[in-house]
Design goal:
about 350 residues; alpha/beta; 2 domains; nine-stranded mixed beta sheet; 9 helices; 9 strands; globular
């Protein structure tokens, strides 16, 4: 992949689950701030001077010229180091865990590492207008099963680069997801991979899985975007959402809605290809992503192992619902994923 450091990630190593370790943001292989810098040498014609002063004069002039050339090299040849990329919250990306996508955009990442050896990888795709930090509670619970959970803020969301709620093509979300997944698979070869998506993240998960048939051991969808809904552009109004500074609180942009419609058209073609195990969770009173989409998904996917759990009178964000609903949702997900991880482990040992 062209470009300095692109396609590399900086998870930040250890630390508590979900932390963004400071000072570890430079993608691996990019080196330090002075790597690749060439100190300027002497050039031009020296004016005639007395022999006795020549050595002293040359040393002083060379030192000054070297200092000047070093400064020029730092500011002109490596502007990304003198003016490091910063997040929309004005934090240098070198201080944040991130990957750099194919367009050279920095995507903020989170990693929840289990206390012992990981049994599987779980990638979380968040919904429109929000960010991956809103899945911390669920991710923490998944680590209790010794699962390594990871996620990033999509382009134009949260702490990632890009104009807010703008994407040139919906496929950028799928491309970036696959890049991140591939990096984690490379670091943790042989582990089964699961994908979990909410709302728009459900659409991303479906299309990501359809591009890599056979790569995923299971998919969990929470209130997925599958069919068009007249309320799709309506912002969510709940206290934990509206008070979150990393959430986009503006109106849905027309260009973004067009990309969502394009995604829905692609999903219609992708669903019949899917054969992986699927768990779908949806609230009957969801006004943002029509539950008819989940019924359509169940009727269309070719999976032999597929489950739909409907929560009566529950709304869109089931993982942020009333305590009794959220507790049931977490239990359902943990039980289902735990069973699939065990089954995948048994298969790998036969």
């Amino acid at each position: 992949m062209p470009g300095r450091g692109r396609g590399r990630r900086s998870p930040g190593g250890g630390g508590r689950a979900g932390e963004e370790p400071p000072g570890l943001g430079s993608p691996r292989g990019t080196g330090g701030a002075t790597e690749g810098m060439e100190k300027g040498g002497e050039s031009g014609v020296q004016p005639p001077v007395p022999i006795a002063l020549l050595r002293s004069w040359r040393g002083t002039r060379a030192a000054r010229r070297d200092e000047k050339d070093l400064s020029w090299s730092h500011s002109s040849r490596m502007p990304e180091e003198s003016s490091p990329k910063r997040s929309p919250q004005n934090i240098p990306y070198k201080d944040l865990p991130h990957i750099i996508n194919a367009d050279g955009q920095h995507l903020f990442c989170r990693y929840w590492k289990p206390a012992t050896a990981a049994r599987a990888l779980v990638f979380i795709a968040h919904g429109a207008g929000e960010h991956c930090g809103r899945y911390d509670d669920l991710a923490q619970r998944l680590t209790e099963l010794n699962l390594f959970v990871f996620a990033h803020d999509h382009v134009g969301h949260g702490q990632s680069e890009g104009d807010r709620m703008v994407v040139s093509d919906f496929h950028v979300f799928i491309r970036d997801s696959l890049q991140h997944i591939d990096l984690m698979k490379k670091d943790h070869p042989g582990l089964p991979v699961f994908i979990l998506g909410h709302s728009m993240g459900g659409a991303i998960s479906i299309l990501t899985a359809s591009e890599r048939l056979g790569d995923f051991s299971g998919m969990v969808l929470i209130s997925p975007l599958v069919v068009a809904s007249p309320e799709v552009a309506t912002p969510i109004k709940m206290e934990s959402y509206t008070s979150d500074p990393l959430v986009y609180h503006g109106g849905m942009k027309v260009s973004f809605v067009i990309q969502l419609m394009n995604a829905i058209a692609r999903i219609e073609r992708a669903l019949p290809k899917l054969t992986l195990p699927v768990l779908v969770l949806h609230g009957s009173s969801d006004k943002l992503c029509d539950i008819r989409g989940s019924y359509l998904l169940m009727d269309t996917v070719q999976s032999q192992d597929k489950t739909l759990k409907v929560y009566e009178e529950a709304y869109h964000a089931l993982h942020k619902e009333l305590p009794e609903v959220t507790t049931s949702v977490f239990t359902e997900i943990l039980t289902w994923v735990g069973q699939k991880v065990s089954a995948a482990g048994e298969t790998s040992h036969t």
